[in-house]
Queue: 4 jobs
Job 1
Amino acid sequence: MTTILRTWDLTKVYEEKEIVRSVNMEIKQGEIYGFLGPNGAGKTTVMKMITNLVKPTAGEIEFFGDKMTHRSYEMLKRMGSIIEYPVFYDKLSARENLALHGEYMGYYDVKAMEEALELVKLSAVDKKPVKQFSLGMKQRLGIARAVMTKPELLILDEPINGLDPLGIKELREVFRMLSREYGMTLLISSHILGEIEQIADTIGVIREGVLVEQLAMDTIRNQHTQYIELITGECTKTVYILEHKLGLTNYKVLDPRTIRIYDDIPQLELSKAMAEAEVELESMSKKHHSLEDHFVELMGGAGIA
Ligand SMILES: Nc1ncnc2c1ncn2[C@@H]1O[C@H](COP(=O)(O)OP(=O)(O)OP(=O)(O)O)[C@@H](O)[C@H]1O
């Protein structure tokens, strides 16, 4: 897969504080990259640097292998974005807004405009001024405006923020359509895991300006599947059996009574070994380590789900 965007040690300092710290992000062509992190983690700042709204303090950004500078106008034309809230002429209709934008961008193409409105299901909303639009409609119009010029990379900062469940569902369908049918690459930020995990191919997690994880969703799902949880009053003895009798290494002692085993071992074999060593177990159960658990751990307990 071709890399469309890569950042090398991207850093931003505001008032002597590193808001973004050496971020190495890699976005592949055609994927949906979910950029996840709690409020204030630095997502918007990274996106602003990518779209040339803010100058990096250090580090580099490459778009299709070419280094970006603040004069890379041709590269920037190949990106579409909505950073923070989209602003419109609110007395004008959706079509009038798109037409104005097209003229301004030197890209007046009625067919592209109609296609964009169709894509976000706004083509039937004819004369209504934008000020009468719901938040979801405004977000969709923002997307229509951003995709009208057929960008290769679409950057959306918290597009789902404030939307009701129906609005979220509609937007998700738009994202999938853009990715699958138009082959567009999407970088979407959110502080809510549930919104991102359903659509992202890759997830990048940012915490206090540091990219703490960047992995394919499939890998994350496979890594965090099942484990066996043991509750026992004889933790030390149990650990000894796990290591020396069963040769297990991938386990975690959660507290003096709870052990989680991530190694793949049949429960029967485990209980037999414990019985032979006369270890008393209060319980043994197979459990699922949810993605939510994983991300909450990764964020150091910050609620992002
Ligand atoms: N121009 C600025 N000057 C000083 N500090 C700033 C500036 N812009 C952002 N910050 C600070 O940088 C930090 C990261 O902000 P940023 O908006 O990038 O985070 P975020 O992850 O997008 O969060 P949110 O979802 O709340 O916008 C915050 O602490 C913010 O106060």
Note: The chain has a mean pLDDT of 90.
Job 2
Amino acid sequence: MAGIYRSTRYVLQNAFGSRSLPGAVRFYSQKPDPAPLINVDVDSKTGVATVTMNSPPVNTLNTPFLNEMGGVIKELEKNKTRGLILTSSSNSVFSAGLDIMEMYKAPRDQMAVFWTTLQNTWLSLYRTGIPTVAAINGHAPAGGCLLALSCEYRVMVGPKFTIGLNETQLGIVAPPWFLICMREAVGPRQTELALTSGKMFTATEALNIGLVDQLVSNKEEALAEAHKFIARFAKIPPLARKLTKEFTRQEGIKYMEEKMLDDLETFVDVASSPSAQKGMEMYLEALKKKST
Ligand SMILES: CC/C=C\C/C=C\C/C=C\C/C=C/C(=O)SCCNC(=O)CCNC(=O)[C@H](O)C(C)(C)COP(=O)(O)OP(=O)(O)OC[C@H]1O[C@@H](n2cnc3c(N)ncnc32)[C@H](O)[C@@H]1OP(=O)(O)O
């Protein structure tokens, strides 16, 4: 089984080939496509990139989306971007997390490609030397929360949106690296309490436990505060900053570097188990009922 996963990873790594930025300040990251999944807008004065997830209706994280996100981060690093602000084009959803359709009734090799892409893209975001901020302008369950936690600073639009690692509510388990990200933000006690119950926090609750750093009342304010956070690093030498970030995040980085294949095998085994499949089926039914 590990052989399949290793060759899958090889294919995926090659698929992350770099693309050159055009001369223009604004660029779209994907192949020529009238509806890109992620828009990137680099401020010509500050060099800060606003990365807007634009995959309606709810910015689910599936393989094409994650590949594109990985490519965007690579491009921004190559272009020595001064900061990365992650936000959403939706008025109510930051990201609905992993695309359940990538896991529900999916063949094991498809699940493996999906998970490897997620692992790689997560690691790119989590460890990038670029200062990162999540401007959370909508709900951020599960993988949506992970994206936000992988950034260095979180500004959330309140009070009506929610955020959290709710996996246990679906009958699945947040993997250790999701948990490490949560623990880095809120500490071990709050992590255990939150993850065992799959709690979704209101924006105010999230602020109170340190899951987010700031509450604001709209997206414009969130972006303004995100820019302010990035401006703090104007006089900090980038290498010192990058290494300090790596040292601070070494538990998560080490986990992924050393346990990537074990994590992949565990994921495929757990996600394809009858109980996880049943949980996803019931959850998808509930989502469908809600939207009709
Ligand atoms: C050691 C352990 C190793 C492995 C363990 C194994 C597995 C664990 C793996 C990983 C952890 C999982 C992480 C995840 O991220 S799982 C996904 C969790 N996400 C959610 O729970 C969010 C679900 N969605 C919502 O709550 C709402 O959609 C939301 C509040 C975000 C927005 O509500 P709104 O009313 O605006 O939209 P909806 O009508 O609900 O949705 C529109 C449309 O989109 C579909 N949808 C929503 N979310 C998902 C999703 N995550 N995946 C796929 N599809 C999704 C929804 O069904 C609607 O579809 P349709 O009816 O066809 O329009």
Note: Strands lie at 26-28, 38-42, 48-53, 83-88, 132-136, 140-141, 153-157, 162-164, 201-202, 214-216.
Job 3
Amino acid sequence: MAGKVKNDYLELTNIEEQEKEVERLSPIVEYLPALLASKKATRAEHESEQAKLLMQLKMLKKNAEEGLKENPPYIKNVSAMLRSAFAIAVEKAFPKTGVAKLVQVGPSSHPRFGDYQCNAAMAINKALQNSSLNPRSIADRIVANFPIDPFGLVDKFEVAGPGFINIYMGKEFVVEEIRSYMINGVKPRPVKPLRVMVDFSSPNVAKEMHVGHLRSTIIGEVISRLIEYQGHHLLRINHIGDWGTQFGMLIAYLKEKYTDGFPDRMEVHELQESYKESKKRFDSDEDFKKRAYQAVVKLQNKEKEHYDAWKWICNTSRLEFEKIYKRLGVTILERGESFYQDYMVKIVKFLESGNFLEEDEGRKVMFPKAKGLIPLTIVKSDGGFTYDTSDMAAIKQRVEDENLDWIVYVTDGGQATHFQVIFDCAERAGILDRTKVRVQHVCFGVVLGEDKKKFKTRSGDTVRLRELLDEGVKRARDKLLEKGRDKEMTEEELLQAQESLAYGCIKYSDLAHNRNHEYLFSFDKMLDDKGNTAVYLLYAYTRIKSIARKADVSEEQLRDYAKSSAFEISHEKELKLSKTLLKFPEVLDRILEDLYIHPLCELMYDICTSFTEFYDSCYCIEVDKPTGLKTVNMNRLVLCEATAVLLKQCFDLLGIRPVSKM
Ligand SMILES: NC(=[NH2+])NCCC[C@H](N)C(=O)O
């Protein structure tokens, strides 16, 4: 029931945490039936060991109550709760054998095996090597020791085959959760807030932002949203490539070309052309090379003329980047390589004084601890710094000045070794302690065109993101017109719908794939309204939202109904949809571990297909033809609304904006 205080000790996600809790709680759980039987402890009992445990339990309950007062009910991770409960069961069944850590619980592969499965009995059998036991008897013993279940999480167990434990969820629990989704929304479990940085997007100045940067932007933004949603403090950082000797080259070239001052506006591709030209000159013309080097020195000393020229270059690029971010709904703090100039000087001294650098043909390099990896180039033979130098400086600044607990870098898979070596060298230099600071490189595969080759224009150039987005919007509009949607929408609504659809599709088709794999960019595929696409999901969402509208029932009424004892879930398809919704917390928790986002898309798709099944077999509104009288099934409407609430939350996390008409 709403407001009923529950003791949520079972919900622990992390295995060490679980183990500690098991150790702490198993005696308490043992004594719990006794506690419940004798509500008041006698004086004598107070002096006994048992009473101490009862006190402990009281404290635990009190903490839980207080926790709940502060934090409105949050969504529960069923897998994690079951895992903790099974860990307790195993600890009770086989005390002090250390096998509780073998417990794994996952969704079952088929409904005939229940909702979830625990297959620990086999692994425990192996670990215990006790000939008088077999996996089945182990499974029986685990089930017999399952702790009290304050949530009614489990309806029944079944020990099957060689020792699988099939778990059937309790309906009461499902009802309570759906009730809470409806009344309280989908609030994640409160956690200790961490300081987190996501370093993503990060295009390069004076170069076109390419599809790789688009992927980094899309994935990085979603990771940021997920981390924020979980309640952590987040810093989104755009580590743009805006520093280095190439800028001396470019400035020298531009000064030569525009003797009367730089133009007011310039497209990034023109800037990129100049960049290519300057590189040619640099490689072929000794005089130019000298001037380029002088320009670098002047830039590094921040001499006005050169510094202004550099600012002009950065600004030209920035205007272009910002247009893309605005369209995609991304806000990110620019803190490029140039930000670390002073830190780079310092890190070189630091590494030098620690004797971490070695001479190599005039360069100063740093080897990682791991064997077989290429070293970082910290100082080039011309004295300049590199990408490696900036990342070493950045990691020090991030750990020490920003005090971060968690740093995420989002780039293509081609940089996996770079980050491996950076993390390794940072540890070697004592800058980073990976037991305290979590560093994660989130990589992704290359983007392919419809011809399955690297995504390029026909002439072999980089595809301009602005043009790509424009094409997406045009295609989305065509799609809407093709379906005749324009007849039901004002021009304003159509504009909103086409943008939501275009950007939604581009984002979703990227996110729905395992990020490690290559990804085929196809407007035709992403704008398909069948299958796991944004179009399908957005339509489904709009349809769900329109049901309550048609029924003429307000959200307020639905909430009131959900609070009442009349609310129930009965039809098999209602239950199936509900159980699919309850998968959200476990998907969320897993994503926050490995930062693979596609399971969230899979879940959204499952929700929409379960919804369709439910909607096909369960009337929400029945109209009596002769009289025209409407009968509204409030239970089902609540379920529709809970589905909508969760889907909306998922769209928000993915940065996709559903519109009321589509
Ligand atoms: N800290 C970092 N290295 N962030 C990623 C930078 C990505 C780089 N500018 C590129 O375009 O590939």
Note: Residues 304-328 form the longest helix (25 residues).
Job 4
Amino acid sequence: MQYISTRGQVKPKGFIDTVLMGLADDGGLMVPVEVPAVTEDTLQKWKTLSYEKLFLEIFSLYINDEIPQEDLRELVRRSYSSFRTPEVTPVHQVNDSLYILELFHGPTFAFKDVALQFMGELYSYVSKKQNKIIHILGATSGDTGAAAIQGVRGKEGIKICILHPHQKVSKVQELQMTTVDDENVLNLSVKGNFDDCQKVIKELFADLDFKSKYHLRAINSINFVRILAQTVYYFYAYLQINKGEQLPKINFCVPSGNFGNIFSGYLAKRMGLPVNKLIIATNENNILERFVKTGEYKPGDFKMTHSPSMDIQVASNFERYLYYFLGEDPEKVSAYMKELQQHGKITISPEDLVKVQQDFAAYGASNTQCLELIGDYKKSYDYLLDPHTACGIAAYEAEAGEGEVTVTFATAHPAKFDEAVRLVDIKQPFPPQIEQLFTLPQHQKIVEYDKAEIVRELETFYQL
Ligand SMILES: N[C@@H](CCOP(=O)(O)O)C(=O)O
């Protein structure tokens, strides 16, 4: 298996080089030259596999022999040993048509742990094998940062710097990142929003001199390994629900910000998973909903919502979808991305919009609706939704058809977003791992949204 860039200017790379490259050197995103096909027979065989074994099967299709099987097995074992359930991502049945895939059983209580605990182990493995330093640079609207830091804190040969938007993440998200006192961790709290943070890091990854001088590595979903690790739970959820001989199609409904999680579902579908609808759920920052409904991809005004992890306008992985949607044509992708940069928007033709609508449905929940659903589901099903999952439920209710079965992703534990949950008069007990964070000192540097200042902080940290 080889990997190329969506913009076509990178020579094919193997798996490890692709992981280390993160953002493609031509500014695009890395994708496999060919998506491996999973047949119905294979799916039948995978039905009885544990999460870890399924992970190994799927990864083996993508990594050639670059990591020996026994090493990979050990990396996977270590990655998921910190999860609070052996199923890693258990499925909860709400009623005949709705299942909730709980993705919050990892150490930082959000779906990001599923890929990032593995990435932490992988980076550590590569750093030791190649005897090379890994300097991680990432941007977060709250969950990625916490999970990435947790995945590499205290690990030799690795330093991590995470940019988060100052006072625009939840209190628990902030504490999860900033109470870590390991010397290999730097938190920059940027006076801006998530899009500002992501813009700075993308510019730094695109500066190839800076990137190679400081051995910059990515943990965001621009990194293909994040996407791949997230495909595993689509297969796992599907196989948990469909135990019988029949393999019917089901919907997946995914709270979405940077388009990484839902793109993993798109990849799973291209591999052969019987997916009916992929439903994109957004909050009031609804660029993805507007794109699917109108064909115009245009960042709007940033809004602060009850689901801060999805307070995103410019969705990184949209470019990966464009690549497939445009028939794997890097020239067309480059032209569209240029248009976005120059004119601030992309508009596709009505014929192309029909194709997009065959791939995705989309719905953006208002703040009011999000809170209402948290209250309703607690009352009707005694199930406490976090505000991101509540946006997912809103999209499921709006977009799933009669008689269809839908798996909606619970992307975070409600305790991470207690500010929102309290607004519906629900008092939840904090898990002890979260409760104890409130007693710890915080370590972070508050900086202006100013690339030069951020670079100075980074250079000092990486050189130490
Ligand atoms: N919602 C994310 C934003 C970054 O997305 P990623 O999937 O590219 O890491 C967060 O919580 O940080």
Note: The pocket of LJ64HWYM is lined by residues 140-145, 220-221, 257-258, 260, 309, 316 (CB under 6 Å).
